[in-house]
Design brief:
Length: 107
């Protein structure tokens, strides 16, 4: 069960290393449940932003590796493309959420 919820698995693993915590099975279950809820809430709020950063980083890396430029310009190109990728995806995310809100008001 814990293999599907990494925060709970990490919590149980950490609690197993604490002396005296092995007897308190109830506390391990409670800590696993609390950390699972906290991990789920964090994922719901942070997932979109982390996905934007990771995809912008991956796309920028692929573009910079395929372009042959002097080394002093590569870092500037990387920064500019990363900022552009983040800006485009954030704009798409806000436009999509605004259009969903508009559909709810009409329907």
């Amino acid at each position: 069960m814990c293999s599907r919820f990494p925060p709970a698995y990490i919590t149980i693993s950490l609690m197993a290393s604490v002396p005296g915590a092995r007897c308190a099975f109830f506390l391990q279950g409670l800590a696993a449940a609390i950390s699972g809820v906290i991990g789920t809430v964090l994922m719901v709020f942070i997932f979109d932003h982390a996905l934007i950063l990771m995809t912008s980083l991956a796309g920028t890396s692929m573009i910079v590796q395929s372009v042959s430029m002097p080394p002093r310009f590569v870092s500037w190109l990387f920064i500019c493309l990363m900022a552009f990728g983040i800006a485009v995806q954030v704009n798409m995310m806000t436009f999509e959420s605004a259009s969903k809100k508009g559909e709810r008001r009409r329907g």
